[in-house]
Amino acid sequence: MKELLEIKDKYPLSAMIEVLLFVAVMPISVSQLATALNESVKTIELALDELDDHYRKTRGLRLQWKGKRVQMVSSPDLSKIIEEFLGIKTTTKLSQASLETMAIIAYKQPVTRPMIEEVRGVNSDGVVRNLLSKGLIEEIGRAEGIGRPILYGTTTEFLNHFGLTSIEELPPFEVLTEISSKETKILKD
Fold first, then answer.
1. What pLDDT shows up at residue 187?
2. How big is the CA angle at 40 (ends 51 and 11), to the nearest 5 degrees?
3. Suppose 175 and one of 77, 132, 170, 171 were both cysteines; which one would form an S-S bond, judging by CB atoms 3.0 to 4.6 Å apart?
4. H or E segment at 61?
5. Rounded distance, CA 8 to CA 15, Å?
């Protein structure tokens, strides 16, 4: 405890949060940060907001949220630089069926496979398996009811793939339906 007080005297809270996010292999909860730094959850949340704002304005880093868990990631705007430096090419292309299914899961999560199939009107077993294998969706529980079907939700890999820092950055569903309606009208004309 004495050592933590000495560190707190020397470094701002944002620096201590930053170093913990840097070494974390997985997203960590705000409560874990609060416990590790002997601070309140509210204090940590405020410091994370300040850190995120600082990153967005001055750095090539972002904070990515999945529920109440957070992790430090590179800015999606700089992905081309990273790909070139590491000598990698992102070749993961998603089929139309995969994109449709991803949209359903992203906007309606948690969602079951039968719910997905009801919206799409076709069997989605293969598409769901493919998205699971790519790490874009995950099993997040089981629904109540007959057969207790698996509930699916998006992952942090989904956020990375689409350059989002949180699911709240998705455009409103109404905007998508307007675009879809316009495209359908153009195709009919």
1. 42
2. 50
3. 171
4. strand 61-66
5. 10
How far out from the chain centre does Cα 51 lie? Answer: 18
> How many residues make up the chain in this entry?
189
Q: Which residue has the tokens 């509210």?
A: 42
pLDDT confidence of residue 188? 43
Across 32-57, average pLDDT:
94
Query: Is residue 23 predicted with pLDDT exceeding 90?
Result: yes
Give the count of beta carbons closer than 10 Å to the beta carbon of residue 148: 11
Q: 32-41, 63-72, 148-157, 176-185: which has the minimum mean pLDDT?
A: 176-185
Spatial CA neighbour of 156 closest among 27, 5, 3? 27
Residue with tokens 């974390």: 24
Supply the mean pLDDT for the chain.
85
